[in-house]
Design goal:
Largest sheet: 7 strands, parallel
Bound molecules: ligand V47
InterPro entries: Aldolase_TIM, CofH/MnqC-like_C, F420, FO_synthase_su2, MqnE, rSAM, rSAM_sf
Order of helices and strands: HHHHEEHEHEHHEHHEHEHEHHEHEE
Radius of gyration: 20 Å
Distance between the termini: 13 Å
Cofactor: [4Fe-4S] cluster
Low-confidence stretches: none
Keywords: 4Fe-4S, Iron, Iron-sulfur, Menaquinone biosynthesis, Metal-binding, S-adenosyl-L-methionine, Transferase
Strand order of the largest sheet: 2-3-4-5-6-7-8
Number of helices: 15
Protein name: Aminodeoxyfutalosine synthase
Number of domains: 1
Helix content: 40-55%
Function: Radical SAM enzyme that catalyzes the addition of the adenosyl radical to the double bond of 3-[(1-carboxyvinyl)oxy]benzoate, leading to aminodeoxyfutalosine (AFL), a key intermediate in the formation of menaquinone (MK, vitamin K2) from chorismate.
Mean pLDDT: 95
Length: 380
Amino acid sequence: MLDAAYYADLGLSSIYDKVLEGRRLEPEEGLALFRCPDLTAVGALALHARCRRHGHRAFYVVNRQINYTNVCVNGCVFCAFRRDHADDPGAFVLSHEDILTRLRAAEASALRLDELHIVGGCHPNLPLSWFEELLRRVRAAHPHLPIKAFTPVEIEHFSRLEGVSTRTVLERLQQAGLVMMPGGGAEIFDEELRARICPHKADATAWLRVSGEAHSLGIQTNCTMLFGHLESYEQRVDHLCRLRDQQDKTGGFTCFIPLPFLTENSRLKLPEDKVGPQRGLDQLRTVAVSRLLLDNIPHIKAYWIMMGPKLAPVALWYGADDLDGTIIEERIGHMAGASSAQGLTIHELEQMILRSGFTPVRRNATFTTLSETASTEARP
Ligand code: V47
């Protein structure tokens, strides 16, 4: 498939050369990849870049997600998870005890967890001390368990509520046990579109600044892009390049997760041409272009909850190297119509990876390798 003459016919000669030599692509080249009529040609380049970094290894994590509340002051138009007020139907806030009970049950059934992923809405009156105490109690009860918690949007919200800097918030949470931050809330950085879909949320500058502050404190973070809604290819490329620029400066992004927009129960209605079966192909293409443009971010996640358990492993052939994990309970995607299960077993995740021709690697929250299962199946 990696035939120079074929890429020349597609008008992608310089991209082909750069990918094979491991050189950086320009934004216009990212755009050309989004517009290329042959998705498999784009995928083959992304596979090359992915295998250069990770060979045929594919990562997963034994984790538990906890959403502590869905009450949120941001009112993002696309979000089906949020409730605007604490007394709205379906609104919830978990107590510390609820969270610890869920964790105990998860550890009892899932052997040993290697990541606890905690995120929630921006609640109008949970003070920073509530989160510090939560982290301390989790750390006391589960000292081995790496805690990945709070997006840059939540950090910015805690800082505004508390009247202290985002840096101080990060330092206090780090003291209490935070080791890693998830990448949610980035949505799409373009200011004009952000003003339409999430006008009250921390803006692009704040999101990137908080990520950089976390990196400077030694907290690794992830990053995301919500796509497949109203954004153009130009806005996707702009988003990816802003992440790449930030990474050049502060270097702490570990994994990028492209999140395909799920439409159910959302107030954001899509035009006719944006819905339909071609969306799966667009997801594979977006994974591939992300792998090719984000030359300085080590991992690309095909999040099986949002992409679905059939398409996510296919994305391993299009540049992704991680599928996320066992999860156990997920709300954000499921309230927006995700038809995937709530969780997968270790066996199911490993089989998914093996059947796709890759070698499963169990990792923890910060992507430290814990164990590798030898592949028994022939690779296509
Ligand atoms: O911030 C909200 C997105 C994110 C919808 O860092 C939606 O390892 C699709 O960020 N359709 C939360 N997406 C999930 C997230 C995440 C998940 C797994 C791992 C990591 C990580 C991060 O989900 C939100 C928002 O960008 N989202 N609504 C929707 N209807």
